[in-house]
Amino acid sequence: MKKLIVATLCLLFAFGAYLSVSTVDNSVPVATAGSAYTGTMYIAGMGGHFAVAKIAIDPSAENPIMVKSLDRIVIGDKTTHPTHDPRIDVNDRTKMYYSTYKPDKSADGGAHIGLVDLKTGKVVMDKVVALDKRVEWKGALY
Asked: With a threshold of 0.90, does the pTM exceed it?
């Protein structure tokens, strides 16, 4: 029984060594980390806006994430446009889609969907989607 266990462990070790050598391709460049990064974060707010944070990330710094500027994109107010889960268009990074998660009483209880131009920070489209007549819940739609 001991011989079987030792033989199995040796085979597993040899197989692992073979995989570690054979799966690395030296002709393919390896991704290397940069020294610093910059970007923009769009954070949904329950008050009818998105926070826009310009950030810099320096992994070697004591405080690696720095907020360079903070602004907002207003899409409505807290009673009409509480929002979450914005989506930036994968094919056009200048467009961000949003939806609201509470019925808007001023729009016959419908929910809003919309589009923001990220270059200008302006709402390009805002439509009210009527809820199904069978919906009886008047709270949050999530």
From this structure: no
Q: What is the pLDDT of residues 41-94, one digit of tens each?
A: 999 988 899 999 999 999 888 999 999 999 999 999 998 999 988 999 999 999
**Secondary structure of residue 107 in the 3-state scheme:** helix
Please give, one letter per residue, the 3-state secondary structure of 11-77. Answer: HHHHHHHHHHHHCCCCCCCCCCCCCCEEEEEEEECCCCEEEEEEEEECCCCCCCEEEEEEEEEECCC
DSSP letter for 132, please: P
Residue keyed to tokens 């690696």: 64
Find all residues with CB under 8 Å of 72, minimum gap 6, and list them. Answer: 45, 49, 50, 51, 52
Strands 83-88 and 65-74: unpaired
Q: Is the pLDDT of residue 129 over 70?
A: yes
Structure tokens at 83: 């929002």
Picking from 101, 103, 96, the residue whose alpha carbon sits closest to that of residue 125 is: 96
